[in-house]
């Protein structure tokens, strides 16, 4: 019978990230990770399907945080107001004490094209999920997809700023600032040639432009 290892997943994650950062992702094996914390390779594969999953474990919880924010939005909220609620809830998934781990994780991803592609796929999955949730609230197309893609872009920009060296603001603060910038841009679109764009953006972005609805 396999022996239960308390905290094994967390130990494996911490060890893997350290090895990926020092040796390189391609040069590190699942066996290396397990052995570095006194566990077996079999134990590693009980927790992760492969070594890439160490870096992307928690995707379901990540998406659930955004879903919770969408569900908490008022029934009459505009598409971007719903997205603001989702961003605020999603940012709470990344408390400040998680920033050093996220910085190191990103440094590993930035050195590996396959991991970069997987990270982009994660953001695409976020946009797809948010768009579906917006449609479920009765928001039609293309508004649902436009709002969802905008939200995913805001999150990606905010996250990149959050993990920069020397950054001290919370992810929620940064996401709020980036979201506000998005709304300022939509309100500044000239009507010439696309005469309905300005009015449509203003209606879509009803509210004060902050993450707090």
Task: Describe it.
By secondary structure, the protein is an all-alpha fold. The chain has 2 domains: 8-55, Orthogonal Bundle (Arc Repressor Mutant, subunit A), CATH 1.10.10; 58-204, Tetracycline Repressor, domain 2. It contains 11 helices and no strands. The chain has helices spanning 8-23, 30-36, 41-47, 52-56, 59-72, 79-91, 99-110, 113-136, 143-162, 171-187, 197-204. Helix 1 packs across helix 2, helix 1 (8-23) packs across helix 7 and helix 2 packs across helix 3 (41-47). The protein is elongated, with a radius of gyration of 20 Å.
Essential attributes:
Arc Repressor Mutant, subunit A; disordered C terminus; mainly alpha; elongated; about 210 residues
CATH architecture of the largest domain: Orthogonal Bundle
Helix content: 55-70%
Query: Helical stretch count?
Result: 11
Task: Let me know the average pLDDT.
Answer: 88
Question: Going by CATH, what is the homologous superfamily of the largest domain?
Answer: Tetracycline Repressor, domain 2
**The number of domains:** 2
Instruction: Round the Cα radius of gyration to an integer and report it.
Output: 20 Å
Distance between the termini: 52 Å
The CATH topology of the largest domain: Tetracycline Repressor, domain 2
Structural class estimated from helices and strands: mainly alpha
SS elements, strand count: 0
What portion of residues belong to β-strands?
under 5%
- Main sheet makeup: none
Please tell me what the overall shape is.
elongated
Identify low-pLDDT runs.
192-213
